Amino acid sequence: MFIINCPFCGEREQSEFKAGGEAHIIRPKQPTELSDDQWAEYLFMRKNIKGIQFERWNHAHGCRKWFNLVRDTSNDEIKAVYKMGEKPPIK
Amino acid sequence: MTKNLRVKTGKAIDETYRISFKFNGSTYYGFKGDTLASALLANDIHLVGRSFKYHRPRGIMTAGSEEPNAIVQLHDNSSRTEPNVRATEVEIYEGLEASSQNCWPSVNFDVGGINNFLSPLLPAGFYYKTFMWPASFWEKYEYFIRKSAGLGKSPTKPDPDIYEHKYIHCDVLVIGAGISGIMAAKIAAKNNLKTLLVDEKPNLGGSTIYQNSDHFKINNQNSGSWVEKEINEIKKLENLEIKTRTTVVAYHGYNFLLARQNLTDHLPIEQRKNKTRHRLLKIRAKKVITATGSIERPMIFDNNDRPGILLSSAIKKYADYFGIACGEKNILFTNNDSAYETAISLIEKGINIEAIIDNREEINSKLIYEVEKNNIKIFKGYTIIDTSGYKRINKISIMQLSKDGQKVVGSKINLSCDCLGISGGWTPAVHLFTQSGGKLRFREEDQVFIPNTYPSDQLSIGACNGNLTLDEILRTTPESLIKFLNVKSSDYDNLEVLSEANKFKRNIWLLPSNKVLGKTKSFVDYQNDATSKDIKLALREGFRSIEHVKRYTTTGMGTDQGKLGNMHALGIISETTGTKMGELGTTTFRPPYTPLTFGTIVGRNVGEYFDVIRKTPLHDWHIDNNAEFENVGQWKRAWYYPRNTEDMHQAVQRESKAARASAGILDASTLGKIDIQGTDASEFLNRVYTNAWSKLAIGKCKYGLMLNEDGMVYDDGVTTRLGENHYIMTTTTGGAANVMSKLEDYLQTEWPELDVYLTSVTDHYATISVCGSNSKKIISKIITDVDFSDESFPHMSFKNVKIGKISCRIMRISFTGELSYEINVQANYGKSVWEKCMEAGKEFNITPYGTETMHLLRAEKGFIIVGQDTDATMTPIDLQMDWIVSKKKYDFIGKRSLYRSDTIREDRKQLVGLLTDNPDEVLEEGAQIVGDIKKSPIEMLGHVTSSYFSPNLRKSIALGVVKGGKNMMGQKLTIPMEKKNINVTVSDPVFLDKENKKLNA
Fold this sequence. Notes:
The complex is a heterodimer.
Chain A: E1 3-6, E2 10-13, E3 18-22, H1 36-44, E4 52-58, E5 66-72, E6 77-83
Antiparallel strand pairs in A: 1-2, 3-4, 4-5, 5-6
Chain B: E1 14-23, E2 26-32, H1 36-42, E3 47-50, E4 57-59, E5 71-74, E6 82-86, E7 97-100, H2 114-118, H3 126-130, H4 138-148, E8 162-175, H5 179-190, E9 195-198, E10 216-218, E11 221-222, H6 223-234, E12 240-243, E13 246-252, E14 256-262, E15 276-290, E16 294-296, E17 309-311, H7 312-320, E18 330-334, H8 338-348, E19 353-358, H9 366-373, E20 377-380, E21 382-388, E22 395-401, E23 408-416, E24 419-423, E25 426-428, H10 431-435, E26 439-443, E27 448-453, E28 458-460, H11 470-485, E29 497-499, E30 523-525, E31 530-531, H12 532-540, H13 546-553, H14 566-577, H15 581-584, H16 598-602, H17 619-624, E32 628-632, E33 635-640, H18 648-661, E34 664-667, E35 672-677, H19 681-688, E36 701-707, E37 713-723, E38 726-731, H20 736-750, E39 757-760, E40 765-771, H21 775-782, E41 797-803, E42 806-812, E43 820-826, H22 830-841, E44 847-848, H23 851-860, E45 909-916, E46 928-930, E47 940-950, E48 955-963, E49 972-976, E50 981-987
Parallel strand pairs in B: 1-7, 8-9, 8-15, 9-12, 15-28, 17-24, 18-19, 18-24, 19-20, 34-44
Antiparallel strand pairs in B: 1-2, 3-4, 5-6, 5-7, 10-11, 10-29, 13-14, 14-15, 16-25, 21-22, 22-23, 26-27, 30-31, 32-33, 34-40, 35-38, 35-39, 36-37, 37-38, 40-43, 41-42, 42-43, 45-48, 45-50, 46-47, 47-48, 49-50
Helix pairs in contact in B: 5-6, 5-11, 7-8, 8-9, 12-13, 12-14, 18-23, 21-22
């Protein structure tokens, strides 16, 4: 069970958080302009990486804020935590 | 009474405290400090159980938690009986009753023993191979397999004991209180680190505590006395908490560990009352030091499983610690120096040793010279090739090993004995380390896996780190601890260590025999009866991965998880396939390290504490008025209110009729309520609902449908505009929390520019819905200063009102199709407002109705319930709710998905009404709907989602989803049930008052 450093509250147990899938997928501003394939790309396609993965997490049983987290899925090491809208601190 | 093999006062035994216990119905005696295993051995009982597959007689093999054979059933009480308990871990207490498992009618005469003679017919994968054909017979096979499978008996009644969970946070957790763990705890605690030391045994000191040989000394005292002084010292340390009888069962990521603390199992039964039995410790440690020691390896030879065959180290512990001779004619069999430590202990206590068989040809160490001085015959370069004795070993046969160790040479020598100690060297206990994600490396010189890379802030020390001798431990451990903890300590500087064992070992995974492999039974996994033959068979049949071989042969899959034999299985695979051990790897070590009872896992979360129970502000009224309750998520909702002898059907029919004919009242407080404020609130609603919100006037209400981005219906409810920038949204009861999360997600991540604030106010309000043709009259009686005319207060509008001095919001909205009013009032006034409604409605026979009637009334009107009539595959178009999807809005959540190639298909499942040919026949919800019943295979067109007998229409009505149903109005379909086929006609889903006249009645 991870310890996650919420950017608003500090270190908390994983049980306070909810995982929210891949990060940095931006909702298209003009969905109606998109073809079925383009829309499906946004809607369904997600990476499932062994290694460094960018994820969304929500401090659901805390401040309820969403934020981003970089995790190495091979060993669950959390490399970085940063707020929504911020650029990832690592590549 | 049998013999008494107590030879000398053991370190652990209090001979002034005699305890009686029962084993298989007979009464025996032991002393305080005995385990069930030691007490049985003291009574010369070796035969304890039968093996799993062949029902071979089995005895006590070890003195610890790695025990594969001596597993027993405790108690025969149907609520407290416990199967698969290791006799080596049960501390005896007054009232203990234990019995053998897996045997019938008794452990001495077991009918299942026939399997031993049938064993040529029961190879690895027997069940997979045999019961595959014919497939239709599987159910019959399964019955017999289930009957003969399983080890013990489970309790049949709820567990009456108390369990609890506790969180512990510490700087340093030390697992294992052997010599290494004690040093670690001392260094950590003395450096102001909050330290927790745990050990599965009732005492501290590991195997060193009973070491009193002159061959192992620290600072010129024997190592046992030295460690005892250390223990006395650490017990005084302020920063150190010590927990014995505490087993770390799981080591998860980020140094999160679970441990089971056993609090009462060792107490006499009458002292356990009202005490917590086990405590599950949830430990989060900044640093973890694993000092779990090592487990002695058995050796693999023909018939290596007979009662009377023990690990050599276990014989030593029974002698030194419990003061017991495991036999009167002992033989030791070894490939390393450990067995000589056992021999010296036995000699010192006057226990007879017949001979020592040593795989090694050239050996020299001071231990061996000492044994030889006592005129004990040592067969050097020999191996055991067979044993005999059905219920107790009585003879071994030995032969000389060839130079390469691949075969036996010379002639067979028979030696008689009643106890055989075997020592195949030591396996570091790396289970917890690997559970934590640690990676192992294989050390070729002594054929052991040891920790290599650590995934968290942790350190393995002592034997579990591959330091298998006393001098290695004392030489390296203090230094690595100081470095790991980043502290200063001079406690263990300049220790003088005498450690006279020689490390040389002759490792042969599968010992050669004079028989061909097919004729031998050399057990690798004792509990599951997996032999070396089975492993070789699996390899011949093409299994290569250790994980596959494990599952095919069941090696390592018993309650002991292969703590003894797994290494041999790997070794045999490695030798047979020519793959290096290091490349082969190990099977996965999964938690728990030793089994836990379910009670420990659930703790206090049983019965009413299993989950949160949410009650509405009107809950007590419902109870006082005889309501039956239904669980909706965590909520308790009034389901129906039976009167006199009414059953549910009768009550619902009465409530439904009354609600339309005159007046009904419903507690709708569980509906989710979200307060939405901000200058962009209208725009926000535009984006999250399918319909348009900007033009909704203040004081007006509107029904909204919310989709997922994939276009599927997610939630619905009425939202009211309270002010220019202020709305109150209602959601479904079950969807409230998810809708709130979803809205917050979009606001924070996709549309942070919107000025919108969300507050969940579900619990702040009681919601009371009064419906029916007389509802207006009732409401007007309690709210006298409001004009309830259609002009002033039309359908889908809202007013702030006062009932007495109580401020309320009242909405004229309807989920029943009747004229109805919904009063929202601060929760703590809920009951008084409800009672006022009841009082005012008395003359109109106002009838409280529950969720079942609510469901029926809305079904008459064809209103959907999200989650009942929809699943995550229904679009608003599928629901025939095209009217609510705005064509003008540029975008809303899910809009683009409504015209994907899949969502515009004509043959999607669509919501329709279903009318049975026989109006009295009520369909079953979930029943499948088909077209042509004669067509094979029958095509499933859909299923029934809601079904009721409508008292107001006096006929059966149902909603269902049917492929292409929208274009099938009037068509006949069939619903095949177990005993008959029911014919239905597809209809409009609105069954009652299609023109909505009643809303304005």
